[in-house]
Amino acid sequence: MTRYTWGGKSPATGFDCSGFVQYVFSQFGYTTSSIANDVRDQGVHVDPSDIQPGDVLCFYSGNNYVGHVGIYIGDNTFVHAANSDIGVVTTSLSVGYYAQRGYEIRRFGPSDRDRTCGLMVPNHARYQLRHTRKSQCIITQKDA
Question: Is the four-CA dihedral 100, 52, 12, 67 of positive or negative sign?
C-alpha cells in the first residue's frame, strides 16, 4: 500500500489527494496544482453526462470549497489518495461518503496527439494512461 501523507507528492514519501493527481499527470507532461481547491480551476470543465476515464473529480466539502480530488477510471469508480488509514485506493462513486458529495469534473489532455503510455500507479495496482485523439486522458486498470 502506498501511504497517505499530508502534502505528499511522490511514491517514496506517500501522497495526499492533490499530490497523487499532480504526480500522475506530471508523468505525462501536465501540471496540476498541489492544492485540491485550485485543481477545480484548471483543465477544462466536463459535463457529468460526458465523464470519461482520466477525468479529475474535484469533491466539494462545503461552502463551494473543493477538499478532495481523484482520477476517474470508469465504471463509476475513481482512484485517489483517500486517507492515512487506507492510502491510495479505488472507490465507487455509488456508495458511501463519495456518493453524497457534490463534485466538479475537470479534463486535462493533449490537443491533437495520440500516444500510449504505461503507468504504474503506487499501491502496486497497475494502471495505464492513454491519450486519445479526442483530447482526453484515459486511465484503465491493467490485467494482473
Answer: negative
- Could you tell me which residue, 132 or 99, shows the higher pLDDT? 99
Q: What is the pTM of this model?
A: 0.76
131 is an active site residue: no
Q: Considering 17, 58, 131, 137, which one is annotated as catalytic? A: 17
| Residue 16 neighbours by CB distance under 10 Å | 24
**17 assigned to active site:** yes
pLDDT digits (tens, 9 = 90+) for 33-42: 999 999 999 9
pLDDT computed for residue 100 by the predictor: 86
Residues sharing a CB contact under 8 Å with residue 61, sequence separation 6 or more, in sequence order = 67, 68, 101
Average confidence (pLDDT) over 55-61 = 93
Average pLDDT of the chain is 79
Please say if 45 is a catalytic residue.
no
| Residue 126: all three cell numbers together | 497497475
Write down the catalytic residue from 58, 68, 131, 137.
68
* Options 58, 80, 131, 137, the catalytic residue: 80
Distance of alpha carbon 63 from alpha carbon 108, whole angstroms? 25
Amino acid at 76: N
